[in-house]
Amino acid sequence: MTIYRPGKGHLMIQFDTVHKRFPNGTTAVHDLSLEMPEGGVTVLVGSSGCGKTTTLRMINRMVEPTSGTIRVGGKDVLEQDAAELRRSIGYVIQQSGLFPHRTVLDNIATVPLLLGWGRRKARSRAAELLETVGLNADAGKRYPHQLSGGQQQRVGVARALAADPPVLLMDEPFGAVDPVVRTQLQDELLRLQKELSKTIVFVTHDIDEAVRLGDQIAVFRTGGHLVQCAAPAELLARPADDFVADFLGAERGLKLLSLTTLADVPQAAAPQDGPWTLVLDEARKPQAWRSRSKDAEVPLRPLKDGDSLLSALNESVTSPAGLVARVDGEGRLTGVTSREDIHEHAGRAHSAAGAATGAGVAA
Amino acid sequence: MYELFENLGSWLVSGDQWSGTDGIAHRLAEHLQYSLLATLVAAAIALPVGLLIGHTGRGAFLAINLASFGRALPTVGLVVLVFLASGLSMWPVYIALVALAVPSIVTNTYAGMNAVDADVKDAARGQGMRGHQVLLQVELPLALPLIMTGLRLALIQVVATATIAAYVSFGGLGRYVFDGLAQRDLVQVLGGAVLVAVVAVVLDLALSALQRVLFRHRPA
Fold it and tell me: Which residues, listed in sequence order, are joined to residue A43 by a DSSP beta bridge?
């Protein structure tokens, strides 16, 4: 089967007034129209029962819409064979859903085998994917229950990628792992996405995860209503209504800062005297702040240009000097930035994102 | 009492007792033949039923209740009933044994299918497996440990009950029990009973061991 591959910037998935009412009478999705660009990550967020998972599952026909049209790559999903459609779309779910009776390698090879690649070719592709998702080759011979939760999710992602589908559906894939592993998996997904440029639809109820991963975020309200769909910065700066604002939380101004880097904030020379000075090692890497009387040293976290304004704000609050040490790619001191400069820049970043509704930053 | 066990011991080990058409070896072979054939026929009926209701989730209530009803049927009563209806043949015996075996196999097969993780089934469908592929590649292998438990239980029950073949004049280890009762030969009755019990226990242990080997990779 051939897969329609439009160029960058095309729409990969289109919802046109899609409605889903379950037999018990509840409306899961209410007249949804939504477009998902090719190569972008669209995150569907909302509290439980808001229809985000149903929306995702209608894309690969795990749920059939009551009315309306869904197109993937320009083709109406209802006009395609459901099993073949699903083989052409990667699918990752929360509890990984790995087959407990099959080895990791055979789990990953599932779709290639369904497509009739033959066992040898399917297995070698699976071995390749183990590496792609950051697992050891010997993990392939193990069974899913012998892996940790985070490793199982990696295998789940590898299985979804096995036949190189243009679209990846991820239903709360990192919902069941601990926060540290979740952050790792999010980093890995961003790294993979840079390489692979899949069209990803990602469901979560964690707004921080949505802001981190999404190119656009669609916020749903109970009853299956889409309230707002926008890029993360725009959403945080201009929530469409109180519901979205509440959902984004009281720290949404700070979340916006997590999207802006420190690069544009000016720096000054490090203080040579004063109540606090920087301790540097031979390579000019900042080690700590030292008080004038030399009886106190406070550890610090030097920041690179690529770090977010949020982490700069955090560092400026914990620094006794009220200054943030800035370093280059090798970790050598380039200068310092004051708390005031960071604040001012944070405010400007917020206005730039179009904050007409007032900043949420508590000064 | 001690004398009885001594006699039983010599009855069980004497060479005469093991050879010939009335010998233990021959009766044991008959007994196993009845039991295996009845269990196989029962499996041929019960497995598809259990798999189908497990896969579709339909008809479970009816099937499970029918199975409970089947369990409550008195086996000897069934033998007599079919015997009266059809005359002297192995039919009453096989029908009764199959009726005995079917419920365990249906309920365990259904239980095994029902216990397959819903997320795993969802993932199988979501990867693009068709209904029969989900059944054969995912549900059946995952339900297999419980299915085998059902088959094992059915076989043990059938082995223990196949003595009734002798009740309607056929062979098997039940021969010793019924002949012994008729001849007031307590040693022979006990010998038959002990043999049936030993066969049942040995089969149970052997099949349990096989299950442990086959499913050693499964999570506990």
Answer: A202, A217
Output the CA–CA distances (angstroms, integers) from residue A236 to A190, A239, A248, A259, in the order listed. 20, 6, 7, 10
Q: Are strands A41-45 and A323-327 parallel, antiparallel or unpaired?
A: unpaired
Nearest-5° angle of CA B69, CA B107, CA B161?
65
For B214, name the nearest residue in chain A, comparing CA atoms only.
Answer: A101
Tokens for B45? 């009926």
CB of B58 within 8 Å of any CB in chain A?
Answer: no
Residue B71: predicted pLDDT: 79
Helices and strands, counts by H and E, chain B: 12, 0
Determine the Cα–Cα distance for residues A297 and A294; give it in Å rounded to an integer: 7
Q: What is the pLDDT of residues A214-260, one digit of tens each?
A: 999 999 999 899 999 999 989 998 999 999 999 998 888 888 888 88
Question: What does the block give as tokens for A105?
Answer: 């390698």
pTM of the model: 0.83
Q: For residues A325 and A276, what is the distance between their CA atoms, to the nearest angstrom?
A: 12
Decide yes or no: CATH 3.30.70.100 for domain A11-250. Answer: no
Tokens of A239: 């929530």
Gap between the Cα atoms of A262 and A320, Å rounded = 20
Confirm if A343 and A262 have CB atoms less than 8 A apart.
Answer: no
SS3 helix, strand, coil % of chain A, rounded to 5? 35, 25, 40
Report the alpha-carbon distance of residue A92 to residue A161 in Å, rounded: 9
Tell me which chain A residues have a C-beta less than 8 angstroms from the C-beta of B124. Answer: 97, 99
Which chain B residues are closer than 8 Å to A101 by Cβ?
141-142, 217-218
Alpha-carbon span A204 to B171, nearest angstrom: 68
CATH superfamily, domain A251-363, is: CBS-domain (3.10.580.10)
CATH of B2-214, one of 1.10.3110.10, 1.10.3720.10, 3.40.50.150, 3.30.110.30: 1.10.3720.10
Q: Is B71 on the interface with A (CB under 8 A)?
A: no
Q: What is the pLDDT of residues A8-47, one digit of tens each?
A: 568 999 999 999 999 998 999 999 999 999 999 999 999 8
